Prior knowledge:
By secondary structure, the chain is mainly beta. It is built from four helices and 30 strands.
Amino acid sequence: xxxxxxxxxxxxxxxxxxxxxxxxxxxxxxxxxxxxxxxxxxxxxxxxxxxxxxxxxxxxxxxxxxxxxxxxxxxxxxxxxxxxxxxxxxxxxxxxxxxxxxxxxxxxxxxxxxxxxxxxxxxxxxxxxxxxxxxxxxxxxxxxxxxxxxxxxxxxxxxxxxxxxxxxxxxxxxxxxxxxxxxxxxxxxxxxxxxxxxxxxxxxxxxxxxxxxxxxxxxxxxxxxxxxxxxxxxxxxxxxxxxxxxxxxxxxxxxxxxxxxxxxxxxxxxxxxxxxxxxxxxxxxxxxxxxxxxxxxxxxxxxxxxxxxxxxxxxxxxxxxxxxxxxxxxxxxxxxxxxxxxxxxxxxxxxxxxxxxxxxxxxxxxxxxxxxxxxxxxxxxxxxxxxxxxxxxxxxxxxxxxxxxxxxxxxxxxxxxxxxxxxxxxxxxxxxxxxxxxxxxxxxxxxxxxxxxxxxxxxxxxxxxxxxxxxxxxxxxxxxxxxxxxxxxxxxxxxxxxxxxxxxxxxxxxxxxxxxx
Length: 517
């Protein structure tokens, strides 16, 4: 091959590679929210490069998208009346899709200064501490977790030294006992964001804040299926054969507009978990060795439905219903505990949530939320008979574990957020828990008898017994309420001071000076 032909082929290959590089494009996808994390629809978002700009608008869910972008450095700009303008630099080219979250801040009375944020910069905002972790929906989809347990996986990022009361869960700005939606309906999870705020009943460096997906003017859906089978389990040396365990998890969510308008929407999410577990019994009973696998299935069903309506640009609200039903059969069976000594457990909970948000002015925001709920959780022994425990040999008879727990409860949060000069003020009241709880304890009504050996059991010669008598039913009312005031003062561009005061009251410990700074 002569030199001329070689150069011609090199030029053709270079031109081909240049055409491929020029044809490769990228996208920027993001969400625009207000200070309460509600979506901001129909707002102009501008993406600028050194030589060109792109313009789009956010949809009803606050989502926006730029497609067919070349690689390079860009700046996202958003200007909304009454809020501080946003100017955020981003780099396109490392990934095919760049995901961003833009959150508006209420404007201040005096002059506004926009400082472009640089990578690795330190913020003086109290809610932007360096130890905070934020995971959005895109990252959650790629997070490797078992059983869709995002909270359990992210809890490893919490401070190992638990604060008062342990881990605290905040859902859409209010303290809660459960998330209220399934994993695919979660928009964002935050950890250790401003642990010393007076907004919540207790300070905590073990706080998990969950933001659920909001209203949207387009249909979105997700479906997840997880399966686990015994073929991947290790062998159990105490079992004659590998326990035939199997697990199925079905989870999904759907959200979108209601009707032809853009002011009403819905969110439906559900999960069904069928865990066909097996307990391995290895015991010595009066009739000989007992070595068998016993089915110990667990089922969990959760569903929620939310209806959202925006009456105006200043006012929005939603109504939500949650339902959960959990069953655990043959609880306690396994090892030296025979199948007859197990118990069946059930947990049923229903909740209703109402959330209202109103913007009185660009400098004053009101948020109100109330939750009403009840649960019913019985435990029943499989066999109604006294329990016999032969130490280290077997446990037979009835479980003697019968009880019933019930609760009717409510929680209320009302908060105002106001800006004045260089101050961001938050104040309001909350009722973390106002509940009526009932507990019927019928454990050991027929007694539990302990034997030192199998010979003592056959001779009916126990060395100890435990029997419960008397009234096993109790009902009590729990009341908790509090009020707070907090001032985030931006003294200078790089210096901020957070001051807070909180008062809490409850009805069991008669202490009137529960004021904390």
